[in-house]
Amino acid sequence: MAIKIFNTLTRQKEELIPLEPGKIRIYMCGPTVYDYFHVGNARPFILFDIFRRYLKYRGFEVSYVTNLTDIDDKIIKKANEDKVSTAVVAENYTKAFFEDTKRLGISEADAYPKATENIAGIISLIEKLMQNGLAYQINGDIFYDVSNFNGYGKLSGKNIDELESGARVEVDTRKSDPLDFALWKAAKPGEPFWESPWGKGRPGWHIECSVMSMKHLGESFDIHAGGVDLVFPHHENEIAQSEGATGKPFVKYWMHNGFLNIEGEKMSKSLGNFFTVREILEKYHPAVIRMFFLLKHYRSPINFSEDRILEAQNALERIVTTLANIDSSLEDRELGSSQANPSLAESIDDLKQEFLNEMDDDFNSAGALAKVFDLVKEANLILAKNKLEPAEASSLLKIKQTIEEFDSFLGILFYKEATASSIKEATLINMLIDVRTRLRAEKQWALADFIRVELDKIGIELKDRPDKTTWFKKITQ
Prior knowledge:
This protein is of the alpha/beta class. It has 2 domains: 4-283, Rossmann fold, CATH 3.40.50.620; 306-473, Anticodon-binding domain of a subclass of class I aminoacyl-tRNA synthetases (Four Helix Bundle (Hemerythrin (Met), subunit A), Up-down Bundle), CATH 1.20.120. β9 (221-227), α6 and β10 (251-257) form a beta-alpha-beta unit. It has 14 helices and 15 strands. The longest helix has 25 residues, at 306-330.
């Protein structure tokens, strides 16, 4: 089955056909490093990291670039508030960003270009736009002339005649049109600046991404990703700048994730209704946050609440506990050449293909995880039996290996580090089981039952089989 993704540009699902066979180039809009990033910001970084890893799993060679906006009005404001330089603000929060993404299990990008390291390229692109009649200068400020670019609004679906300047479009009466946006800003007293043909100044926000993406991925590349809030004006402006300069299609596929909402409102710093990733990770394991986002389709809005997070935690606990129980059941068992039960093996293969079909259908992680829980259900039906036949044991191993194979891109099983199946706890439980086995052999039934009851109270269930006693951690429903 071909991989299909929803393309914001065409407003429909399309088969993913890379510009260069076997290779996919992706640009992910990165953070403006002026504060700790909140859990809403984390959603695209987690989801598109998983999507990138899935494409690699499916055999593509993937180039993945995430920028760092290290000069911006917000950074200047933060620097003034803290009475430090913009470089110090950017350095501190860039470090924090990498610390947080590492804890969340997000793979490193192939490149992290910074705006301040690409000033020469930004100036060069602006000069090209001016030569093409798409930019004009007013007192050291350079603006993009939207009216001269044919196709402005094609990504957002907005009609240029109906567009009005809004919260994300700078209002400046000097501009030829309210929709024209800054490519270069003349330096104000006390602000950082770089020399340019138009005097001292700094780049506008949108031009940075055009320069950095094309520098690392080429003038035309496969996928540009980010939150839906970036569709207009940021990504719309990127298209205008890039295509206006090169005359070539900028990006083939545009992918946007939905908002993270708090009580129906978008989570954002401007509204003050946000939680930083650091605050969330004080209470929940990072794998739980990944699971929380995977349980919803990436294009859908998702409501953040403690109940939803706990649902994700319980779902993850169910998977991890089942895998731990499989390990316990198969401990010291030599499977040799035993084959999985034929009918069950076919069912496992079918569920694996159904999982891949869901992932291929516009990265439907929620539908894919439903197939993982079907595998968990199959495993628990086998585990409930008092005696395991070799074919059933082999089936359990096949289920475990299949789920672990999926985790090569889902990245959620590191939650096992936080479960009761840790090495120390497992050692203690096995020691108690050994003591209980001796007590039973000596017919000290009361003490043996006492151990069983006390372990049951802390969620550890014992199963006495003809050859040995195994233990399972009860699954939280």
